[in-house]
Fold this sequence. Notes:
- The protein has 7 helices and no strands.
- It is an all-alpha fold.
- The protein has one domain.
- Helix 2 (19-36) runs parallel beside helix 3.
- It is globular, with a radius of gyration of 17 Å.
Amino acid sequence: MATPWEDIERAIEAPGQSPERLLALGEQILENWLEAKGFTPTEAKRESFRLLALHHQGAKDEPSFNACRETCRELAWHYNLLKDGGPEAGNAATRAMMVMVAKHLMLFVRGKMEVAELGEFCCSSRPIRALDKDELQTQARG
């Protein structure tokens, strides 16, 4: 059952969230996407992270969902930084960055559920790459 967006946002912004909790919130965000699309969220892992497997599942037949792939990878990266016991393990800036990345993921997925085209119109999107040079110049002039 989908987790209400307000609950996820409150949890992300709550002080003192552990890296495990922030990673779990990332998973809940992607579970919301998958459930809205009629899929049962996978329990599989990719590169040791369920979050990445959920993203992979969510991008199937939805290429624009790949716009948040690097955000998912960054969330996993910050988790690793905080959990490896190295110099970043207790770093408040790294923890704050993980919070910001989790919130960014939530805003993108929530927005994509409201506006299906979100993520399709960046510089690497197929519609823009498919345009020839003259069409791009015409569009740029407005």
